[in-house]
Amino acid sequence: MDECTDRLLDVQVLKFGTYTLRTGLVSPVYVDFREIFGFPDLLCELAELIFQASREAQYELVCGVPYTALPLATCLSITHRLPLLIRRKEAKGYGTKRIVEGKFVPGQTCLIVEDVVTFGTSILDTARILQQAGLKVPRIISAAAMSYGQRTLLPTTAPFATRLLSLMEEKRTNVALAADVLSCAEALALAEELGPEICMFKIHADALGGFDESFHLRLAEIAKRHRFLLFEDRKFADIGSVARRQYEGGIFRISHWADVVTVHAVAGPSALLSLQEACSSTDNGAFIVSEMSCQGSLAVGNYTQAAVEMAKVCRDFVAGFICTSRVTTDPSWVLVTPGVKLQEGGDGQGQQYLTPEEVIGRRGTDVIVVGRGIIDADDRLATAQAYRHAAWQAYEGRVAQI
Ligand code: 5IU
């Protein structure tokens, strides 16, 4: 693999520098996959690495996403005698009008090969189309994709998003714990026990009995020791001046200890701007609530899109979004999803659960927020580890394999 990377650098398929991508983002890495067509041996080598990386997924067909991934998929198809499918960009306007070309029967399993993935939009579209045609898609393999670590290098990534993404990459966890317990003492015990497994510890300070300054000092000490970030799910929704007082003052003095908070979009950008002014460190940030996990939520459609747009007025402070789907394809934002359990279902009070595999792997968000799935378990540590494993596997399945 390292040799292959060296050769990709030699022949300028892989380049380091400053590149402005089609999306307008500036990237320190650029993959010009078309360059590889002049080096058939390298193309075959890369196809073989993809084959090795995808071995444990059982598939009968291989599908290339046009155009540049097609030679890769073809190579795999010929070498390993796997029938090839092509997903057209547009259905033909004449003839059979098939969007998936090739020979297959519904129920067969297909591997999708893509050359470069920035955020996975077109590859996920391909997966959806193959699934609509009755095929199973266990795994997506790409020759290059953006990891959490790489996203920290984008100049548009906010300081808090950079902290969170690097921590997730280093600690290898994309699980945030929703510590919805009754008292501060219980919250501290949870932080001590599960801290090594998580990237963020989310609380509702106003729902914890016995809140005082000593609590947040002790929590901050545990957070530092076990390396996780403190998340107050306050959902600010008032006019700027009031939101600011709720952030800085009162009993909770949130701005003094929370690394990140949630803000509703309903009041417009003024709350965000006021919170940013009151922020105790430029490394702290906020997530905008752009969708909610509960049944009947009004944060859908145009509201969701407007919430995402709003973030742009406060790029240094907004780290990303609370959402249940990929509300933006811009990799500088971090997408955080609550309403996650190992089994899908509900809580009888409006909460709707999706699995880690569904949200991270298929929908393409970044962090799972898990509360009762872990807290109500008999063995909280083993359960937290199971969520961590499932969410990390789903992430690794989404980013570069080779
Ligand atoms: N939470 C949601 N859904 C949302 C938002 C926040 O569940 O849309 I915004 C919070 C509420 C709770 C946690 O603190 O995430 C989920 O807890 P459970 O995993 O116990 O359902």
TrEMBL record:
Top-level division of the source organism's lineage: Eukaryota
Pathway recorded for this protein: Pyrimidine metabolism; UMP biosynthesis via de novo pathway; UMP from orotate: step 2/2; Pyrimidine metabolism; UMP biosynthesis via de novo pathway; UMP from orotate: step 1/2
UniProt-listed Enzyme Commission number(s): 2.4.2.10, 4.1.1.23
Binding site for substrate: 180, 202, 293, 351, 371-372
Orotidine 5'-phosphate decarboxylase domain mapped to chain residues: 174-387
InterPro entries registered for this protein in UniProt: Aldolase_TIM, OMPdecase, OMPdeCOase_dom, OPRT, PRTase-like, PRTase_dom, RibuloseP-bd_barrel
SMART domains for the chain: OMPdecase
A single MF term (Gene Ontology): orotidine-5'-phosphate decarboxylase activity
Similarity comment: In the C-terminal section; belongs to the OMP decarboxylase family.
Entry protein name: Uridine 5'-monophosphate synthase
Species the sequence originates in: Eptatretus burgeri
